[in-house]
Design goal:
3-stranded antiparallel β-sheet, 2 domains, 5-stranded antiparallel β-sheet, D-amino Acid Aminotransferase, Chain A, domain 1, Rossmann fold, alpha+beta
């Protein structure tokens, strides 16, 4: 995601990029000013210093432990613009439980979500995962109720019924309660020894018939802004939403080829259009 985003940004005039990198990793061959980090205690002070010298912050971070929200606050407190949704929306969508309740109250189909102590009904087994996890992080399939009763997961674990169907995602461009569907994507998910693994995906591989769902989600979360990913299961009865990711997702990597346009330019264009109250072709439910 970092390489794809930086390449897109460097293709735009008047933009220079500063990025941080762990010293244990190699530097991608990009015309970037790298700030190397080798001390965990220096990470947040370094980000704070860099934000104060930049015009904007584009966070590539998971929701885990509030990292994405904290980065956005870092920019706002420095008087800079985070290329992200507002912190309240980031906080809401960081919780799969809160997101499911919010969308369900607005008649959007979501996967029932409970706890180990109070799991939702299921005849197909249960999925346990962190409430604020990203991707397939610590995501397990428990086929039988006895497996669930013996489960000793970490605090913050949620339980959902296993929903048979095709894993998929949406890539959206959101602003002011509206959404433009950039692509519908197929996700390749494997279950190995009852543990879920994300193997990648095919951007633009699914039918683009989910514009209505995209619009309904944007209307339900009107402060979503910029690039947003939505994970869902395509079932025989229609799509069932798993989570909303108000950040770059792995599908961003293939967007430029699918769209035939620079997705970073589309997102940054929202910054200019925001002051003119233009919708940029976005759809409202």
């Amino acid at each position: 995601m970092l390489q794809a985003l930086v390449k897109d940004l460097l293709d735009l005039s008047g933009i220079s990029v500063v990025a941080t990198r762990d010293t244990r990793l190699e530097a991608p061959d990009l015309a970037v000013e790298w700030q190397w980090l080798d001390d965990p205690n220096a990470v947040w002070p370094t980000w704070r210093r860099l934000v104060e010298t930049a015009d904007a912050l584009w966070p590539i971070a998971p929701e885990t432990d509030g990292a994405l929200e904290r980065l956005s606050w870092l920019a706002l407190e420095a008087g800079r613009r985070p290329v992200a949704s507002d912190p309240a929306t980031l906080r809401l969508t960081a919780s799969k439980t809160a997101t499911a309740a919010h969308l369900r109250a607005r008649a959007i189909p979501v996967v029932p979500t409970g706890t180990v102590a109070a799991p939702p009904d299921s005849e197909t087994g249960w999925v346990v995962k962190p409430d604020d996890g990203a991707g397939c992080e610590e995501t397990w399939l428990l086929p039988e109720r006895c497996d669930l009763e013996r489960w000793e997961g970490k605090a913050g674990t949620i339980v959902q019924p296993f929903i048979p169907g095709r894993p998929a995602s949406l890539s959206l461009l959101c602003s002011n309660g509206r959404a433009r569907l950039l692509s519908s994507n197929r996700q390749e998910i494997a279950i190995e020894s009852n543990r879920f693994r994300h193997l990648g995906g095919i951007v633009g591989a699914s039918e683009e018939r989910h514009a209505d769902l995209a619009g309904r989600i944007a209307a339900a979360l009107p402060d979503l802004w910029g690039y947003v990913g939505v994970d869902f299961i395509e079932t025989a009865e229609g799509p069932v939403v798993l989570e909303v990711n108000p950040r770059l997702t792995t599908s961003y990597v293939g967007l430029r080829e699918v769209l035939g346009a620079n997705p970073a330019a589309l997102i940054l264009d929202l910054l200019e259009r925001a002051g003119r109250d233009e919708t940029f072709g976005l759809q409202h439910a």
